[in-house]
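Q: Predict the bound structure with nickel (II) ion.
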Amino acid sequence: MLLQIPDVLTEEQVAQCRRTLEGADWVDGRVTAGYQSAQVKNNRQLPEDHPASRQLGDLILAALQESTLFMGAALPLKVFPPLFNRYEGGESFGSHVDNAIRQVTGTPHRVRTDLSATLFLSAPAEYDGGELLVEDTYGVHNVKLPAGHMVLYPSTSLHHVRPVTRGARIASFFWIQSMVRDDGERTLLFDLDMAIQRLGGGTQEDSPALQLTGVYHNLLRRWADV
Ligand code: NI
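A: Predicted complex:
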């Protein structure tokens, strides 16, 4: 499932990220690329251990905790500390699949990448190109979102970023290890969750919402690893 999550960050939070990233020292994006993706990756990144990465990463992680849409769709077990990238002057990232396992540098922590996330920090009018193209069984999804919005997609997907031909595209990107590893099972749970919410709360013993909430939790119990 590919899902757009609007307003993960407020305008003020986006502005704070942009101010902090303004004077940052960006490095070659190939520092976090695997062998295959290093051949096609052409952008710049903030080093993982840069103080701004930590500070803004924590701000994003706190915002994600508040997003019921994110929590329901991703069912996160672990979130990789957010990274930041910048594309300009024709830079792009060719077709690739993200590495399956990510080690958090300098720690023993590993994250299995079930979901990939891109949080846009530049407004679409600030740059030309820079679309994220994600392939799935239904075709190719073209993603270019307002600043503060995020896209979540299965890390198994082939994807690329088109060249940025004007301005700069600044974004945060990271990965999620979900409690529910399988994308199909996770999508069923999310659809059920959304439908229950539309039914509204039921407290009577025979209410459909109550019964379906039971089904939701019993499926989650069956499929989740924590
Ligand atoms: Ni990627």
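A: The longest helix spans residues 183-199.
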